[in-house]
Amino acid sequence: MKLENKVCIVTGAASGIGKAIAALYAAEGAKVVIADLNKHAAQAAADEIAATHPGNAMAVAMDVTSEEQVNAGVAEVIAAWGTVDVLVSNAGIQIVHPLEDYPFAEWKKMLAIHLDGAFLTSKAVLPHMYAQGSGSIILMGSVHSKEASPLKSAYVTAKHGLIGLAKVIAKEGGKKGVRANVICPGFVRTPLVDKQIPEQAAQLGISEDEVIRKVMLGGTVDGEFTTAEDIAEVALFFAAFGSNALTGQSLLASHGWFME
Ligand code: NAD
What we know:
The chain has helices spanning 16-27, 39-52, 67-81, 104-132, 153-173, 191-204, 208-216, 228-240; strands at residues 7-11, 31-36, 57-61, 86-89, 135-140, 178-185, 249-253. The longest helix has 29 residues, at 104-132. The chain folds into 2 domains: 7-188 and 227-253, 3-Layer(aba) Sandwich (Rossmann fold); 189-225, no CATH class. It is globular. By secondary structure, it is of the alpha/beta class. Helix 1 (16-27) crosses helix 8 (228-240), helix 4 packs parallel to helix 5 (153-173) and helix 6 crosses helix 7 (208-216). Bound molecules: nicotinamide-adenine-dinucleotide (NAD). Nicotinamide-adenine-dinucleotide (NAD) is lined by residues 11-12, 14-18, 36-38, 62-65, 90-93, 113, 140, 142, 185, 187-188, 190-193. Nicotinamide-adenine-dinucleotide binds next to helix 1 and helix 6.
């Protein structure tokens, strides 16, 4: 068990990658907090985990763009379990438009969820991690933290920004035992990606099959999607790593779509 009794908050964990991370963390002995927009969906995901790990999953309703809701959610976790050992800031959405048509309100919404969300959740957990002298913060980046694609100006901007934030947390937290790292997944078949397939087909004037084969997987070494379980393994590696040797880093898991 690599995370025995560790309290781990995973945002956006009612679906997709976050859900897979919470499930793997629980299987490794963690007490997991499913933090998501919708209390009902978060509770359903927590109940699924609690069925095999009784007492080790709780749901928290949290819009990560709201300072009030983030602070209230973290306070709920502290009241229930006393501390926070791991934060996975994972909640995210995608909105695609060419830049000249990108509605300003949607740009601001994207930056709020990805960047304000990472800032607010990190800010809320850090005092607890500093008080106990240990903690691991994992920000969910993307290949788009290091590479660009057309139509994704807000996403690419926000995901690049997360690397800067993680490096600052790593520098500020180092002497207090807190590490911060970024995971950079390639395309994973989740609701976030399924929604983009018809949207990109329409905007690029190609078929949905071509979006998958050429746009999404064309650059990979084997034409395969990364899976949520692959990303959960990386999230476990970062969460359970035992020292500051691994901090301020970002790791690509994308079937070789992007190499550095
Ligand atoms: P998903 O749509 O399956 O899950 C996202 C979850 O985030 C949902 O449960 C949703 O309710 C929640 N969420 C959205 N806005 C929120 C908010 N304001 N507050 C709290 N929760 C909110 O998506 P996913 O594919 O699992 O994406 C998870 C993360 O992984 C995102 O940050 C995404 O950018 C990143 N990512 C995904 C892929 C991919 O190909 N799927 C690739 C690289 C990075």
